Amino acid sequence: MSIVKPASKLTPVLTDMWDRERSWNLESYRANGGYEGLEKALKMERSELVDMIKASGLRGRGGAGFPTGLKWSFLPPDDGKARYLVVNADESEPGTCKDIPTMMANPHVLIEGVAITSHAIRCEHAFIYLRGEVVHVYRRLMNAVREAREAGLIGQGVGPNGDFNLEITVHAGAGAYICGEETALLDSLEGRRGHPRLKPPFPAVAGLYARPTVVNNVESIASVPGILRNGNEWFGAMGTEKSKGHGIFSISGHVKHPGQFEAPFGITMRELIEMAGGIRDGHKLKFWTPGGSSTPIFTEEELDIPLDYESVGAAGSMLGTRALQVFDETTSVVRVIARWTEFYQHESCGKCTPCREGTYWLKQVMLRLEAGQGQPGDIDLLLDVAGNIAGKSFCALGDAAATPISSGIKRFREEFEAGLTTPARELFPYEASSVFNNKEGNR
Fold this sequence. Notes:
NAD, Soluble_ligand-bd, flavoprotein, globular, alpha/beta, translocase, Nuo51_FMN-bd_sf
């Protein structure tokens, strides 16, 4: 188990600007040190910049936790032709809500990160692929790109030597969870249906338009300017030995004050719940997710596990996108997992049989159990179907659908068994779980 290095409980870096006046515009961002990292980066050799990010220990913040600098280094030798950076801003995982507020409150930290990364990999045209429903964020990003271009920070022939060329395209997708998978995102960006590609080749070799491409999450790229400004030693002083730095932990559900908490990796869920005001009055924790709906669920037993990639993995789950959904004792596990299953069934792209057919059957059985109309053998059927999806589908969406079911049955089998005879609404009334009090007029 990893040990947290001495650090304050909260480390506002990306979130530091969120409460500043007009935090989203260029003037405010530059007044708070914005684009100092880019200025420093443009004076460095590209290889030196890649090595710096590798040495920093920055890991991908999109869920997998792959070392960011190492991913950049996978690009083949420069042949003088186009290579691309694509920022995955298609945040769609149930419970995940860190990238959208980051882009809304401080879009320029992402633009600066894109510029630094583009210089490091010699990219002259970068793309930000945004979930299309968040029109307000789309407009804000477009405006930030315009401001950066008019200020001479990006464009053609900018930089201290006039040799930095970068265009940034903000692309709004049509709203599909599958486009959060990097190769499905690339297909969508090219104008095709968002379906995952067979790998290899990986995007680093043949990505967007069959050219070498780096695909990184919003938070990963937005973390780069801070490293350039403050150095690797500063970044490494936060977090754990193998999970360095700061991250945004999104807490939702049955806590008094849900929200975003930027803290060093290795902080515990117990500490975060305390920061969120604790479980709502008169109730106690039942279960929680460490990384969103696609990760195995935890209970009170795991409250003191350091939230870093290694410790959470050793405990049997995944840190994922740090979407910490909290549920108290009024919540039906069957009902929650049924909603997640409906989501994954709806969002399956249908390319592979295990996911296309399996998620349909998972949904039907879960709805039966939720309604108290389960049939003998339904629980074993769920485990069988989930086992035939996990690890056998074309991409990770199948695993995401199967994981909460197998995890939920392991932890709360008695509730699934109750679904053979009793509706979840009787065992766990909806109004008991609601965080709104309709009697007081709140809706």
